[in-house]
């Protein structure tokens, strides 16, 4: 999985849900923090951040099913990411970790929100880095109403075929816009950001360790009579993120309410009100033909939706803090680790 920074180790834990590979740092009796990674990535994207945590914390970062070095176990999209959440809870239980803090990045933010909804008294706090909207990913108006009755335009159907083929081939090149390396350069970080070449190679290798297929990444799809002609299937991560199956707005009603920190990169192009992975935005800019227009199928206002729900969370009895990290994209903990670490530690303390 590429060399790990000093102080960070790895192992596999066999639970009743999943053979879960994880990386970890800090003493066993430290205050526990569970870090959950995003889509098309793995725990390895957290390693440098874990290495910089103060010694008082015990950090645990698992690979989700189908990612990294964890078991290749199918993802039932119709459960709205509960597969991931139950895997994480099984790991936490097996490790005898009591009421940890949770950090979730992107899709991992959705896993953490689902965890808090299902087990609100088992989370000491939540920190979310550029999380998926509580209304799911793509195809909704600001209030969560679906743009199409069958949620066409969301899920696995819009995934780039060449990107998937290159993932399957283990392609490490930079000879195509759709190569995993160039997708990471273009979208995982802010435009113009250059990663250390050695670290970039490690992250590319971690990205390539993503299982593909109908019940993995990105999942399956179905034809639709509604624009843009394709709707979610029942398997895989991208369908589990579809608003057809994923509704995290119940986070506003949980009791007790763990303290919530929302950290986001100001130049994120993945989770954004103008996301390059959202059918409504792609239609608006002419990348998807036949767009039915702003009123029928607007770009999903992902950031605005998230703020709406988090304000409800605050009004219902618990505050939340929002930290905007300037000149960063989808991975603020990688792009500006010192600033993000400071925000996280302030939140925890």
Could you explain how this protein is built, in words?
- There is one protein chain.
- The protein has eleven helices and twelve strands.
- With 349 residues, it is of the alpha/beta class.
- It has one domain: Rossmann fold (3-Layer(aba) Sandwich), CATH 3.40.50.1820.
- The strands form three sheets. The protein has an eight-stranded mixed beta sheet, with helices on both faces. Strands 7-8 form a two-stranded parallel ribbon. Strands 9-10 form a two-stranded antiparallel sheet.
- Helix 2 crosses helix 3.
- The protein is globular, with a radius of gyration of 19 Å.
How does the overall form come out from the CA principal axes?
Answer: globular
Q: What is the CATH top level name?
A: Alpha Beta
In this structure, how is the largest beta sheet organized? 8 strands, mixed
Strand content: 15-25%
Oligomer: single chain
Number of separate strands: 12
Rg on CA atoms, Å: 19 Å
Order of helices and strands: EEEHEHEHEHHHEEEEHEHHEHH
Number of separate structural domains: 1
Based on secondary structure, the structural category is alpha/beta
Name the CATH architecture: 3-Layer(aba) Sandwich
DSSP summary: helix tally: 11
User: What is the CATH homology-level superfamily?
Assistant: Alpha/Beta hydrolase fold, catalytic domain
Strand order of the largest sheet: 1-2-4-3-5-6-11-12
User: Which runs of at least 5 residues are low in confidence (pLDDT < 50)?
Assistant: none
């Amino acid at each position: 999985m590429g060399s790990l920074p000093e102080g960070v180790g790895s192992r596999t834990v066999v639970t009743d849900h999943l053979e879960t590979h994880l990386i970890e740092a800090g003493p066993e009796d430290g205050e526990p923090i569970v870090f959950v990674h995003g889509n098309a990535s793995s725990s390895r994207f957290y390693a440098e951040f874990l290495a910089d945590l103060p010694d008082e914390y015990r950090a645990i970062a698992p690979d989700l099913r189908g990612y990294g070095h964890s078991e290749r176990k199918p993802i039932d999209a119709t459960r709205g990411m509960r597969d991931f959440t139950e895997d994480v809870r099984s790991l936490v239980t097996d490790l005898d970790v009591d009421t940890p803090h949770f950090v979730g990045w992107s899709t991992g933010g959705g896993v953490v929100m689902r965890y808090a909804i299902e087990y609100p008294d088992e989370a000491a706090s939540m920190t979310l880095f550029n999380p998926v909207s509580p209304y799911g990913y793509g195809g909704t108006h600001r209030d969560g109403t679906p743009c199409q009755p069958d949620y066409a335009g969301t899920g696995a159907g819009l995934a780039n075929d060449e990107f998937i083929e290159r993932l399957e081939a283990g392609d490490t090149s930079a000879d195509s816009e759709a190569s995993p390396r160039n997708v990471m350069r273009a979208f995982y970080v802010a435009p113009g950001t250059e990663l250390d070449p050695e670290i970039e190679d490690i992250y590319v290798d971690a990205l390539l360790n993503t299982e593909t297929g109908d019940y993995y990444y990105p999942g399956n799809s179905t034809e639709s009579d509604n624009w843009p002609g394709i709707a979610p299937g029942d398997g895989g991560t991208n369908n589990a993120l579809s608003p057809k199956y994923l509704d995290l707005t119940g986070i506003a009603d949980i009791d007790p309410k763990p303290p919530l920190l929302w950290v986001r990169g100001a130049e994120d192009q993945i989770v954004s009100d103008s996301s390059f992975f959202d059918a409504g935005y792609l239609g608006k800019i002419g990348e998807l033909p036949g767009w039915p227009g702003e009123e029928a199928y607007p770009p999903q206002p992902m950031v605005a939706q998230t703020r709406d729900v988090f304000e409800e969370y605050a009004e219902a009895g618990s505050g939340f803090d929002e930290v905007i990290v300037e000149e960063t994209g989808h991975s603020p903990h990688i792009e500006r680790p010192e600033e993000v670490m400071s925000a996280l530690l302030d939140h925890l303390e």
